[in-house]
Write a structure and sequence with these properties.
237 residues; mainly alpha
Length: 237
Amino acid sequence: MSRDTESDATDELLALAARDDLDEGRALTILRSPFCSPEVAHRISENKRILGSHKVRELICSVRGVPNGQVLDLLATLPWLSLLLLAQAPQTPPLVRRQAERRLIEKVPRLTSGEKIALARRAHRKLLRVVAATGSGEVLQALLENPRLTETDIQVLLAQEKPPTEVFVALIRNPRWSRRRGVRMAIARNRAAPLPIALSAMAQLAPGELSDIAEDQTVDARVRRAASALKDRERTE
């Protein structure tokens, strides 16, 4: 498409944005257009009636070139779900994505239990520790059901200083993750894991894995002794 054609499309959007009968649906359509410019987004933002829609405010933030000061003001008014969508959308400008993510992290402690559970099911990697730090079993169970979650993410989560006890409880009870040897090894090696859970995590580990735990001086001595005993028992059976 030629620059003249793009310019004509943007001018048309600008004219539509300036109409007195602009409604939320049309505003959203305009903001989603690939020809929506910062000027068009600004014209829509001047319509206080339309700006009352959090979805409109969300899409204004996603338009590349909107002044950072305006974006920050709008982000401060957005609900957690809009912030999450901005943080995860590929088309969101990188700076806005980071700012939305930061706002969301600040908002997490004030979310209701239901909102935290919903966030846990959709969170991406940079939010995992924040969500896990809530210490709520229901939130952690929801986090473990998150399709974005990988075994590497869980190992990173367990590598943080003193993960909440509820993290270990949720993992050992989760049918998807409790069967993963890498997860079991990470639990057994973690000094913050309650002893019964650490011992349970070693069940069904291979002799070589038990040897690794038994010889790892960073592991709790009681867990190392148990790993050594399990290894010896398996060799004699």
